[in-house]
Amino acid sequence: MSLSVDGAPAPSRGRPRSFDRTQALEQAMRVFWEKGYAGASMSDLTAAMGIASPSLYAAFGSKEGLYREAIDHYVSSFSGGFWGVMEAPTARESVEGVLRNAARVFTDGDFPSGCMVIQTAAESGEMSPELAASLCEIRASTTETLAARIRKGMAEGELSPTTDARAVAQFYAAVHKGLSLSAKGGAGREELDSVVSSAMKAWGPLTS
Length: 208
Fold this sequence. Notes:
Blueprint (H helix, E strand, L loop, with lengths): L20 H19 L2 H8 L3 H8 L2 H23 L5 H16 L22 H27 L9 H20 L4 H12 L2 H5 L1
GO molecular function: DNA binding
Organism: Brevundimonas goettingensis
Pfam families: TetR_C_13, TetR_N
């Protein structure tokens, strides 16, 4: 799972800013997460961040520059649970842990529902090709990380050597995306956990 969106514009130099950059990014992240890239207006962003438009442009360069940094902030804030379960003793525990963690985070009432990165897939046409490509790489990295963990399980003798690691990873990455979409549509934690339990029943047939 990649941890940054490359190419963010460097902040312009000038007089010291009179706002907390980290807190401003937190608020911008929440607006983009809830409304999406195209749906978040500059007035939405400046109101949530508590700054004027000139300060926003001076600090982040553009809406895209702010969005890149907000995505980086999102990933750095929520990737801990993902990487933590990758250290589980077995590949099965790691994959299930990713899904259980997603069910928890995607329905946490303290934040907008779903996954901020996954929902960007529907907005590729609303952003620059460079930004869309960067976000595509982040989404794809989930599959790659799952596949690597499954291959490790194969190497350690946990899984059959004939397991198609990439196909299994793609299946569970699709479940992961589905959890985000369901949460965005109003599904609660219990419903998502039930989906995870059903998906994990396929683990044996897929890896034997």
